[in-house]
Fold:
Amino acid sequence: MSAAAGGDLFAAPAGLHSLFFALLPDPATVAALGLARTALEATLPPQRGAGIPEARLHLTLHWLGEWSQLPPQAVAAARQAAVLVQGEAFTLRLDQADCFGHAEAIWVLRPSASPAALSALHRDLAAALARQRLRLPGGPAFAPHVSLRRRATARFAARSLPPVEWPVDGFALVHSEREAGRTAYHLIDRWPLPL
Structure:
């Protein structure tokens, strides 16, 4: 956009919006994740900052993309896809700390064995998104995890931690809004997984 068209060539870039499906932890699981992070940090060099805020702890099922403005048609199609998913509730046992990332170290908590119900939910949601003609961005294979800290200075080999038992009874569609170095998550909708 040109300055004449109303844009400012020297202004800060506009915010970015992304959309993703995720598992969102209940308060008890959030507390357990905090204890796991504290246990991990006690064995590693001190880090700056507080890690991922509690309000942004999640496990990504599918990332749908990033835009300068959130497209309403993508939101509508994602909601229609979610309605088609017939999953079931399960317990996710997060018992491995690991370090992901290349340019930056990302501390994560992951399951040593992914439950079949989680794999099925991931697969069925991808199929439902395809039926709604929502193309998923390319990326690595699904590796379920919860990020605990980004931009860490210490790397470590995968290690066992006392497990976090997460009762998963639903999944959610989340809008992530990033602007001026800040990120906010907005819950769009949530779908239950029956017992």
